[in-house]
Amino acid sequence: MDSYDEKILRMLMANARATWSDLASSIGLSSPAAADRVRRLEEKGIIKGYGVAVDPELVGYFCTAFVAVTLERAELRSDFLHLIDCLKEVQECHHIAGDYDYLLKVRCINTKDLDRVISSGLKSLPGIRTRTTIVLNTLKESTRLPLDQVHPEKGE
Amino acid sequence: MDSYDEKILRMLMANARATWSDLASSIGLSSPAAADRVRRLEEKGIIKGYGVAVDPELVGYFCTAFVAVTLERAELRSDFLHLIDCLKEVQECHHIAGDYDYLLKVRCINTKDLDRVISSGLKSLPGIRTRTTIVLNTLKESTRLPLDQVHPEKGE
DNA sequence: TATGAAATGGATTGGCC
DNA sequence: GGCCAATCCATTTCATA
């Protein structure tokens, strides 16, 4: 992870479909060298994959919500994690400190669809307690890391 | 937005660096047709961009938190939104229903860095109240939309 | 690990349906 | 809107440092 790698990550964060030659010239290396570095970043697991940012509303997803979850019995944990894995509407699942155990980010078609995910999906487990926070409007949503301070000793 | 476009989005969500010919053959079109469709999806705003998924911990970001924010006076709103825009550590900002006004997702180097973002960043505004929830572990984090039910009438 | 040149293969353009 | 064919350009490989 030197400054070339940082530039590569920054470039790919801005446009993952950039050609190797664009990538290479923008960071000041030859194409083979840039491609080699990207392959190594992939092998190290620093680059986990490439994706596309789709406007959720333009494809019919009008409802975003955060669902805080508490499991009333510890035995539920593995069932819960499996359920989360299967529910495509659950985009994120974080184990959190505080009053609740997990925080989920859920993306649905509308509130009726959210009801389905919560009532037929999550609540299909017994001893699960939820608190849902509806998102009224999303003002910022970036998958980019700050990348101001990359720790070089990591990822080697 | 017909079934070809849906397949394109699904393919790009899985690997945005796929070549045109891979993309084309996987959806059953010729390369120029596939490239045309992607260009149209970009023009319509359905595709907002392409990105790379970087492992946060492997580049030194060990702390994720959700910060709920309440603004005590409505006049703060524009200053707050400008601040959010500038703070690179704030990856997401959602206007929410409920006890708090906004929910932020924040990605930092460590808890000390989180303290800096909250104390010197957010709290630099007067009348702002926050409640921070630390993420202990992230079990799922995908930027993919479910895309099970694309509304064809939208995005035309 | 980087470079440069050669060979390969994919992307783009234009004509046509 | 899509296909095919031809041109053009990017990627990959290999030899070298």
TrEMBL record, chains A, B:
Keywords: DNA-binding, Transcription, Transcription regulation. One of its GO terms (biological process) is response to amino acid. One of its GO terms (molecular function) is sequence-specific DNA binding. Residues 1-62 form the HTH asnC-type domain. One of its GO terms (cellular component) is cytosol. Gene3D superfamilies: 3.30.70.920, Winged helix-like DNA-binding domain superfamily/Winged helix DNA-binding domain. PANTHER family: HTH-TYPE TRANSCRIPTIONAL REGULATOR LRPC, LEUCINE-RESPONSIVE REGULATORY PROTEIN. SMART domains: HTH_ASNC. It comes from Sporolactobacillus shoreae. Pfam families: AsnC_trans_reg, HTH_24. InterPro entries: AsnC-type_HTH_dom, Dimeric_a/b-barrel, Tscrpt_reg_AsnC-like, Tscrpt_reg_AsnC/Lrp_C, Tscrpt_reg_HTH_AsnC-type_CS, WH-like_DNA-bd_sf, WH_DNA-bd_sf. The lineage of its organism: Bacteria, Bacillati, Bacillota, Bacilli, Bacillales. The keyword DNA-binding applies. This is Lrp/AsnC family transcriptional regulator.
